[in-house]
């Protein structure tokens, strides 16, 4: 099962991907997590990405596609994977399709979590407060100003990715404003169909 989760930052892609990982035993491939790991490890890719990520920007397509191409070759991704928040641009969607086709693979589903963007900043502030209360580190991109920059980038660059997959008959919209368990149920129904 090869899946993509689309939706703006804060829509719940990571939360829902984690549930699918637990239920279906396929890895969640969050480019953000992979890039943060590269930054933490101080790899060359991580150092390049750090400045861009700290400002709420997007790293180059070449870096991201390379990370994804390498990652899906790992043993745990042979049964499938979930791409969380990737592709972020039309160029990345096309590059992903080409890369997968070159490996003899295709996507099974593209799920778009649709949310009320006016309520996302509140959701992100709450996520940061919950992380602090739990004694966990707060992601730099959960700063409200950085988040607004990310949301603007999503609307400018990424919102066009959903229609790309919709034209190809691969997109399933999910109401991401429902309670978390209801979103999970809607996703499971989409995967079963």
Protein topology:
Elements: E1 2-6, H1 13-24, E2 28-30, H2 31-41, H3 44-54, H4 61-71, E3 81-84, H5 90-102, E4 109-114, H6 120-133, H7 144-158, H8 161-167, E5 171-175, H9 180-192
Parallel strand pairs: 1-3, 1-4, 2-3, 4-5
Helix pairs in contact: 1-9, 2-3, 4-5
Show unreliable segments.
none
CATH homologous superfamily assignment? P-loop containing nucleotide triphosphate hydrolases
Beta percentage is 5-15%
- Rg from C-alpha positions? 16 Å
Number of contiguous helices: 9
Q: Could you state the order of secondary-structure elements as H and E?
A: EHEHHHEHEHHHEH
Shape: globular
Q: Widest sheet: strand order?
A: 2-3-1-4-5
- In whole angstroms, the N-to-C terminal distance is 13 Å
Structure, explained:
This protein has 193 residues and is an alpha/beta fold. The protein has one domain: Rossmann fold (3-Layer(aba) Sandwich). The protein contains nine helices and five strands; from the N terminus they run βαβαααβαβαααβα. Strands 2-3-1-4-5 form a five-stranded parallel β-sheet, sandwiched between helices.
Provide keyphrases for this structure.
single chain; 193 residues; alpha/beta; Rossmann fold; 5-stranded parallel sheet; 9 helices
């Amino acid at each position: 099962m090869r899946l993509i989760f689309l939706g703006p930052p804060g829509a719940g892609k990571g939360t829902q991907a984690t549930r699918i990982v637990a239920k279906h035993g396929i890895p969640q491939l969050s480019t953000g997590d992979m890039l943060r790991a590269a930054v933490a490890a101080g790899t060359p890719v991580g150092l390049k990405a750090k400045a861009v990520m700290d400002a709420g920007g997007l790293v180059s397509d070449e870096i991201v596609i390379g990370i994804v191409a390498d990652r899906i070759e790992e043993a745990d991704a042979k049964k499938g994977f979930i791409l969380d928040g990737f592709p972020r641009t039309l160029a990345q969607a096309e590059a992903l399709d080409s890369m997968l086709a070159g490996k003899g693979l295709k996507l099974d589903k593209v799920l778009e979590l649709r949310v009320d963007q006016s309520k996302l900043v509140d959701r992100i502030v709450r996520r940061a407060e919950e992380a602090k209360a739990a004694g966990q580190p707060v992601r730099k991109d959960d700063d409200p100003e950085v988040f607004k920059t990310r949301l603007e980038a999503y609307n400018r660059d990424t919102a066009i990715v959903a229609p790309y997959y919709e034209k190809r008959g691969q997109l399933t919209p999910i109401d991401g404003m429902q309670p978390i368990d209801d979103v999970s149920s809607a996703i499971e129904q989409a995967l079963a169909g």
